[in-house]
């Protein structure tokens, strides 16, 4: 199994704040890694550092066995697709124009997008169910619709590593499942590796139940405090320690006998 991402001893601080220290994470090709942790623990900053937006003070990141710093911006955009937590644009783009931006690294500087680019955009929009919104102004979408458009943009980038920051925030039940099912499909059919920061630990169980290879990492106080298979990491004890709340992990089985775990919150400690 080849490594898509190797993060070793990574540390980063903003001028007046240390965010994370000595973080080490490895991801195999074809794996889904769910990064969890309380608000403000550093998940987004870590994702931004992996994408080369922040420069780490210490440690190193290897992407597909090559030092991240040796890639050009254009090369990186073919290797990593990103669904951000929030996204604002000032120009009055249509939804289709935003999705087409996912093809930027494939289109020459002085060229127009070609047939392949338009086909990739249409396929991605069909897959996430937003084909009917193609000509709508992006600035007039709801928070949930924006997430679906950003997913379509990332899909047509066709990068081996997909990074998502709280992808299902703002989504209703059905769109949350469209998102999760799209992740499963990309992972199992296209062998994409997915790193997602999430406040919904049960997503790790859901994706695992659908046959994806899933691991969970829990971040707290700027460190990775637990890392491994979802059932070993997402435990009542770890949730108590990391989030300061009492919870119950419930185990059920679906019709095929596959275990399904869910979490209910019982109170603040
Ligand atoms: N540009 C910045 N300058 C200074 N401090 C920042 C900056 N951006 C974030 N921080 C701080 O760094 C810490 C980590 O923020 P980050 O957004 O990475 O957390 P997070 O785990 O993604 O949080 P959430 O779950 O709320 O999205 C927080 O304390 C935040 O206030």
Q: What is this structure, in a nutshell?
A:
The chain contains 9 helices and 12 strands. With 269 residues, the chain is α/β, with parallel strands linked by helices.
Overall form? globular
Task: Flag low-confidence runs.
Answer: none
Largest sheet: 6 strands, mixed
Q: Percent of residues in helical segments?
A: 25-40%
Structural class by helix and strand composition: alpha/beta
How many beta-strand segments?
12
Work out the helix count.
9
> Secondary-structure element order, as H and E?
EEEHEEHEHHHEHEHEEHHEE
Strand proportion: 25-35%
Mean pLDDT: 93
Compute the separation of the termini in Å. 41 Å
Q: What is the alpha-carbon Rg in Å?
A: 19 Å
Spatial order of the strands in the main sheet?
6-7-8-3-9-10
- Ions and ligands: adenosine-5'-triphosphate
How does this model look, in words?
The chain is 32% helix and 32% strand. It has 269 residues and is of the alpha/beta class. The strands form three sheets. A six-stranded mixed β-sheet has the order 6-7-8-3-9-10, with helices on both faces. The model has no long low-confidence stretch (mean pLDDT 93). Bound molecules: adenosine-5'-triphosphate (ATP). Residues 14, 17, 19, 37, 39-45 line the site of adenosine-5'-triphosphate. The site of adenosine-5'-triphosphate has 11 residues, from strand 2 and helix 1. It comes from Alkalibacter rhizosphaerae. Residues 5-246 form the ABC transporter domain. GO terms for molecular function: ATP binding; ATP hydrolysis activity. Keywords: ATP-binding, Nucleotide-binding, Transport.
